[in-house]
User: Fold these one by one.
Assistant:
Number 1:
Amino acid sequence: MNQNVLPKPSASPARPGKSNAAEASTYRRFCTQCRAHLEAGDRFCSRCGHTSGAAGERSRADAARREPRAPSRPPFAPALKTPEGLAAATTIDARRARLTLIVRVSCTLAVSVGLAAYLLTNKATTGSNALAFWGGGTAIAAAIAWLGINLRSWSERDYYSVPGSRDEQGEHRCIGCGHRGIYRHGQYASNAEYANCSKCKTRLWVGTK
């Protein structure tokens, strides 16, 4: 027999990576809940039903990939700092100012006509005295109307007609600072109710109780 001939290997050498796969197949995992043995492909424990760690991580990763991210909402802008809200507030102010002027003029004219009718029916006051009486009464009525009549305060309906006076959830918002709180207070011996912002103290509207 030739002693120089090398013996043939009994088995072919293992390919790179096969030994790692074999080791991985024989690797035993344990349940983190009851410490029972888990096979390589088990997603749940056969004893207690607890989710295995790898399955839990995969499920959380899959859920994170599937769940759409909610778009970030821009911060709320008060109505008076937006073009639409400022335009609506300006329109309401102009309308209330016109209404105040109409009522003042109407009251002054009503007093003036009433004094003139009184002088015409009463013959006791004639000439310059009658003219002075009529002019003085009209001037006093105009002063009282201009100082005592002011209809520029908004109503609750006016306030909530401004875009931005409510947020997306329909909750109240101050058109000046964007705060949600309302401070309501009344007037002694009166049914008037005043609504102010509880943060910036701005007068919001005037209503009735």
Number 2:
Amino acid sequence: MAETSLIQRQGVRQLVKFCIVGFSSMIVDKGLLWVLTIHFLLMTRLPAVPWWTWTTLTFCLAVCNGFIWNRRWTFQAQSAVQAHRQFIKFLATNTVGWLLNSCITKMFLIFFTGKVVHDQNPDPQHLLLASICAIPFVVIWNFSAAKYWTFRAPKEAAESEFVQPI
């Protein structure tokens, strides 16, 4: 039996695609976060909006981007009947990912600023850097949940893939 190259393995290809989709979602998330924090924190005279409000909004937009592309391209889910259920699962697992991201971002903010509590919102550069540092931790969770729960093929289809002709 010939060894297959690493990139030819389905799980590796899915991880690479997941990371590409994740990168596009990160651009949506962090790009909007940067624009919103710069605009609202530095350029307006409106009362300060807490940083976690912006991260929640940008997270929601990034999740929608991620669901569409992961469903169509990464995991190639075809069933329109399952789309609603998959979106609920995707949203649930990404909500856990958002909570992990928020907690890890806060830990990095403490590390970068030396402050547990900020009198005002932290510097946007510290916030963006802390948020980016949390990404690798959350990717592991999100990919595992998407592959093994959200977009998992029905049991009958999964079993038929492993049946080898004699």
Number 3:
Amino acid sequence: MNYWLLKTEPEEWSWQHQSKNKKLPVAWDGVRNFQARNFLQKMNVGDLCFFYHTGSEKQIVGVVRVTKRAFPDKTDKTKKFVSIMVQFHSDLDHPVTLESIKKNKQLKDLLLLKQSRLSVMPIGLKCWKIINNMGKINA
């Protein structure tokens, strides 16, 4: 299993939207960055992803599970980008803010800190466990 972080603008698609229909997979689409697309293409069914709110919130608010591998993004007229399907997996008892991630020296190498505009990125197992502990995952 691999671990990832997916960013979303809460005005577009929020954790409240995602968790409202816990049993229904939804398309994660609209990604228009080639590096992020390449990461989407590497995801497998069962992989877990942190759900990160961008904008003024800047925090991890939940976890989703990949339910379908990459397929052509229906919102992309150029046919260069892909979507995946994700489904609610678990809430966090406490959102994990970008500020708290920056303060944790063990997380200093996260792409979230090095490439802040990247919307899809891998998370190593060690960092996944640290962030889960920070958020007190409610699995």
Number 4:
Amino acid sequence: MNRNAVRGGIAVVATAVIACMLLLAAAALAAKPKKGAHFAGHTSATKVEGFRAPVTFGVSSNGRTLTNFTFGSFGCFGAGGFRPGVNPYTGNSLIKAGKLKVPASGHFSDKASSSYSIAGTGTSTTMTITGTFSTPMRVSGTITFRQIVFGGGPASSCGPAKVSFSATAK
């Protein structure tokens, strides 16, 4: 074997080792959420009447569960008829995902469901929420959801719809 072939082989191995180290370092950058903290932020949904779609949740005392995870959305069916200057993200436009598990790595991905009914028509939302805590006080992620509307006529479904979110501890 000549010297150039040996040097080329060493370069390939060195590059692979550096790439693995960078991947491990990136994984290590994830943080655990601050225990007992309350987070608030917004999704990437378009503003409505100047209001951004909110995201709120708490963190359990052991830091392993996000509690009362709620985000603002008009669903993948949409909505209309908003009053100027009035925050439309109230009532049924706040989707309650509930509790989400957070592993020690600070990276999470959990499934949830929510439903409500008005005057005989119901909406069921299933979602997957993923995220990463970059610090104990900051998180970003993605909410992917599907919806089914039933009652009052034929059932219809939509999705998946996807929004990103970011939140900080208050």
